[in-house]
Design a protein that fits this description.
There is one protein chain. With 355 residues, the protein is of the alpha/beta class. It folds into two domains: 194 residues, Rossmann fold (3-Layer(aba) Sandwich); 135 residues, Rossmann fold. It contains ten helices and 14 strands. The strands form four sheets. It has a six-stranded parallel β-sheet, sandwiched between helices. The longest helix has 17 residues. It is elongated and about 60 Å long. The structure holds alpha-L-rhamnopyranose. The site of alpha-L-rhamnopyranose (RAM) has 13 residues, from helix 8.
């Protein structure tokens, strides 16, 4: 088992501590004056006060983005004495975010933090916003790198893919069999990167007994995801497992399986939030699933945006900035900042988490 996906006690405790601190509001006690200080030789520069930092998720009313934006991002923006907002479409469709970007730009947003439903469709609007003076941070799902300043990546695509394939392989057992992927929207940058890496992972000899027979899209819509899960079983009666790397999809698929004859027979894993998955882990529908801490993702994205808008970083490889309680981060290749590793939830640890 690789260290990155091991549900180790230390990792659980670190995650738990971070969550507890955030929940208790302790993170907000960090003095804003120390936030975002450059690592070395940068003098006493800090993140400016009063910055308008706006979050634009793939869709609003998704518990994953509630946690990343309203729990993580908001706390960070308050720490740096900025003005927080969240706005966005209720459906995760490719171009639905364009009009929101235009409005934010007209309102004089200093930073737009966006999870892209499509890597190209929102590029034009983002470029206009940048021309108007906004810094653009992508998080969760990137755009084309030329359309933003930095991307806050929740975990490497390789790490996520390896974790997902390993979890389904363990759940299905040594005989292997047919598996399918239930994704979000067909254009989502993050989903497509993970699916491509999962295919690479599945091609490895150790996964030779697993056969990917279908990839379907639930569009991060609960009903559509439920129906797609149902459709997979109707079409592939020998299916042994489903990977759904979306919090909306995995919860909908779990709900379908748990009320069907396939409960406990067809395995399911994916990327989910503990609160949405708890009942299905406890009733035996799901043995394990993974995720990172979404509130840390939003928190880090807000700090990166603040550092950009204050001129502390420009998005170049090697630049360093401090993200409040999370500590120091370094901008990597192509302006990517990596949050950390995926974390595995099982019935033994799920009750330690509340998001
Ligand atoms: C959904 C969205 C999001 C993805 C998570 C895991 O909420 O598709 O982009 O990162 O799932």
């Amino acid at each position: 088992m690789s260290a990155r996906i091991r549900g180790g006690r230390a990792v659980a405790l670190a995650l738990l501590t971070a969550l507890t601190l955030a929940a208790a509001g302790c993170a907000g006690e960090e003095p804003a004056t120390t936030a975002g200080q450059p690592a070395a030789g940068g003098g006493a520069k800090t993140i400016k006060e009063g910055l308008k930092i706006a979050f634009l998720p793939k869709q609003v009313n998704n518990p994953y983005f509630d946690a990343s934006d309203n729990k993580g991002g908001k706390v960070a923006v308050e720490e740096v004495k900025g003005v927080y907002s969240q706005t966005g479409p209720s459906e995760a469709s490719p171009s639905a975010q364009v009009s929101y970007i235009n409005t934010l730009s007209q309102q004089g947003a200093d930073v737009i933090v966006v999870s892209a439903n499509d890597k190209d469709a929102i590029c034009g609007a983002l470029q206009e916003a940048r021309t108007a003076g906004a810094k653009v941070v992508t998080y969760d799902s990137d755009t084309n790198p030329s359309c933003r300043d930095v991307f806050i990546n929740q975990a490497s695509a390789e790490g996520i893919a390896a974790s997902q394939v390993k979890l389904i392989s363990e759940a299905v057992g040594p005989d292997g069999g047919e598996i399918a992927i239930l994704s979000a929207t067909a254009n989502a940058t993050n989903q497509n990167a993970w699916i491509a890496m999962m295919k690479t992972e599945l091609a490895k000899p150790e996964h030779g007994r697993l056969k990917l027979v279908a990839t379907v899209y639930g569009d991060d819509d609960d009903q559509k995801s439920f129906q797609e899960a149902q459709g997979l079983l109707a079409k592939h009666p020998n299916l042994k497992g489903i990977i759904s790397p979306t919090t909306v999809g995995v919860a909908a698929a779990a709900r379908y399986l748990s009320g069907s004859e396939y409960k406990g027979k067809v395995q399911l894993t994916g990327l989910g939030t503990p609160n949405q998955m708890r009942a299905y882990v406890k009733d035996g529908t799901v043995k394990s699933f993974a995720l990172w801490n979404p509130s840390d993702l939003g928190y880090l994205a807000a700090y990166a945006g603040g550092a950009l808008a204050s001129g502390l970083i420009t998005g170049k490889e090697g630049e360093k900035f401090t993200a409040g309680r999370l500590g120091e981060y370094t901008v990597g290749k192509d302006g990517v900042v990596l949050l950390g590793d995926p974390f595995v939830f099982t019935k033994d640890n799920i009750d330690e988490f509340d998001f």
